[in-house]
Design goal:
Strand content: under 5%
Oligomer: single chain
Helix content: over 70%
Radius of gyration: 25 Å
Number of strands: 0
Length: 566
């Protein structure tokens, strides 16, 4: 990066941290630290909710996901608007009226302490692991730019976020997220415009989209029902609905965001804003990946985008073999570029026969390049069995650092940092609130002073920050970060959602039955996931349904008291 880019990056990051600390004010009690005094407006709530979900993984991995797999990932979000409606009708008013700090407080009032503790524990495991991955995402960038190990960059990013989250609490998180999302929207818009402007003369936006479509990348909607297909309309609407409902309704990192709303109405409007804006936003981010894919049809891409792994194999005894494959790849690219030019000419001619012929020859050339790339990856794995053979996280980063003008490179890298900081800060805040309220305040030290709970919340923030950084050091082995985070959540979210559904709608089922049902379901879900019985999105629905069915079946075996009226 140039000096200009470093200045832009440094000023943006430092400004965000100082702004959040300044706006947070002083936190005198646990309500101000964890809930921000419950005083925020709807647009603030909405942007905070979006920023919590839109981590660095979204902006780093989503374009790479589209580059390698097309647009079909957008179907993952199709269940989101339906989930927002259910949340606004059921979850939001109950949580607000009870004045809870965490979603799991409600479960003790409805069931018992052990059910509250179990769901809190499941959340802490899932969110702690996922947050580590969101910290790792921007560390990839710093390690690539500075050519140093990701261990050092992970420690730096983790320390930065822990600092302002511990100092400022929820209000610091929310105010920084408001500014972060504004910068993110602006930067990604400019990135898309610049990709189109850098396409060859005579190749416009529509040409790029059509070319990507001819190579199977504009696969936005897949109507075929297949339980083993990760992304189609059915897994998105049904499985995605259960995942989003559980994420926004039972994950404290999101519940804590909309509980900061000044009223039920403000929280509802914030969630509706998220439901309306999130799908178009995700579509446009994936579309940038499609445009980058089209750009690389005319500009030679690296044979493998992760240059750290490339350097490792080139400096090994397999270096000559890898270099030979790279020469073959360069020659194959020239052929593919010629075929891409022919397809553009055919598209301009509007002659279907020419278009079909050009499409077939381009697919053949693309397949040849892919075959050489696979051989190169095999060589990398021979050299090091632990080598990361998934480079989708590096696709957009490589494009940004090699082709964008000075200043904008620094801004776009700052955007990825900001997204990571926003979602990580929310997660640390939610982990601290769950640990302080559901574990420390309720079980370990009930009846302590407000100052004691405030200090405990800060200590838990530091503790979970350290745990998440340690998890981030492992994250290099998980492949595509965006997909892995959602897969990890699918192992747990369905179970937690099932407990909440029983709590809200099945008043005759007691705490003993739902507790046993949740444990049994989680064991079954782990087995189904490990053996890949179905695509991971379906685990959310299966988990929820299993908890309901098992709890309903075994409930008559327990003595139960009528459910409390809440």
């Amino acid at each position: 990066m140039s000096l200009t880019d470093w200045i832009v990056l440094s000023v943006t990051l430092l400004g965000i941290v100082l702004y959040g600390v300044w706006k947070s004010g002083s936190n005198k009690n646990i309500d101000q630290f964890l809930m921000g005094g419950r005083s925020l407006r709807w647009y603030h709530v909405g942007l905070s909710v979006m920023a919590t979900q839109a981590s660095a993984i979204t902006f780093l991995s989503a374009p790479g996901q589209a580059y390698s797999d097309g647009m079909r990932f957008v179907q993952f979000y199709l269940g989101l608007p339906l989930a927002m409606i259910v949340l606004c009708v059921t979850f939001v008013p109950i949580f607000h009226r009870l004045k809870v700090y965490t979603a799991y407080e409600f479960l003790e009032q409805r069931f018992d302490l052990k059910t509250r503790t179990l769901t809190s524990f499941l959340f802490l495991i899932q969110r702690g692991l996922s947050t580590g991955i969101t910290i790792y995402a921007p560390s990839i960038i710093l390690s690539t730019i500075l050519n140093i190990n990701t261990v050092y960059t992970t420690l730096f990013i983790g320390s930065l976020v822990i600092f302002y989250t511990v100092y400022g609490g929820t209000k610091a998180v929310s105010y920084t997220q408001l500014l972060q999302m504004s910068i993110i929207f602006l930067g990604m818009f400019f990135a898309g415009v610049l990709v189109v402007s850098m396409l060859p003369h005579g190749v416009g936006f529509s040409h790029a989209i059509k070319l990507a479509g001819k190579l199977g990348r504009m696969n936005v909607i897949d109507w075929k029902f297949d339980p083993n297909n990760r992304y189609n309309i059915w897994s998105g609407v049904i499985g995605g609905f259960f995942l989003q409902l559980s994420y926004f309704g039972t994950d404290q990192s999101q519940v804590g965001r909309y509980l900061t709303g000044s009223s039920i109405g403000q929280s509802r409007l914030g969630l509706i804003m998220n439901g309306l804006v999130k799908i178009p936003m995700q579509f446009l981010i994936l579309l940038i990946g499609i445009l980058v894919f089209a750009f690389y049809q005319f500009n030679r891409p690296p044979m493998f985008f992760n240059q750290y792994e490339v350097k490792q194999v080139k400096n090994s005894s397999y270096g000559a073999q890898y270099n030979q494959l790279e020469n073959q790849y360069n020659a194959a690219f020239q052929q593919r570029k010629e075929k891409a030019d022919q397809l553009i000419a055919a598209l301009n001619s509007h002659n279907e026969q020419q278009i079909n012929t050009a499409q077939a020859t381009l697919k053949t050339a693309d397949a040849q390049s892919s075959s050489i790339r696979k051989q190169a990856i095999a060589v990398m794995k021979k050299n090091n069995k632990q080598a990361n053979d998934d480079d989708t996280n590096y696709v957009f980063l490589t494009f940004v650092t090699h082709y964008l003008p000075r200043g904008l490179i620094g801004l776009l890298i700052a955007i990825i940092f900001l997204a990571s900081m926003g979602s990580t800060a929310s997660a640390l805040n939610s982990l601290a609130s769950t640990s302080a309220v559901d574990i420390y305040k309720r079980i370990i030290h009930p009846g302590a002073s407000e100052k004691n709970y405030l200090n405990a919340s800060r200590l838990f923030t530091i503790f979970w920050g350290i745990v998440c950084v340690l998890m981030a050091l492992y994250a290099s082995k998980v492949g595509n970060l965006l997909e892995y985070v959602n897969k990890l959540g699918s192992y747990i979210y369905g179970t937690i959602l099932g407990v909440f559904v029983v709590a809200f709608y099945l008043k005759k089922i007691g705490g003993h039955a739902v507790f046993i049902a949740a444990i049994a379901t989680e064991i079954l879900i782990i087995i189904l996931g490990n053996f890949n019985v179905v695509a991971y999105l379906w685990l959310n629905m299966i988990g929820c349904v299993l908890v309901i069915i098992i709890a309903a079946v075994i409930n008559p075996a327990f003595d139960r008291t009528p459910a409390k009226q809440i």
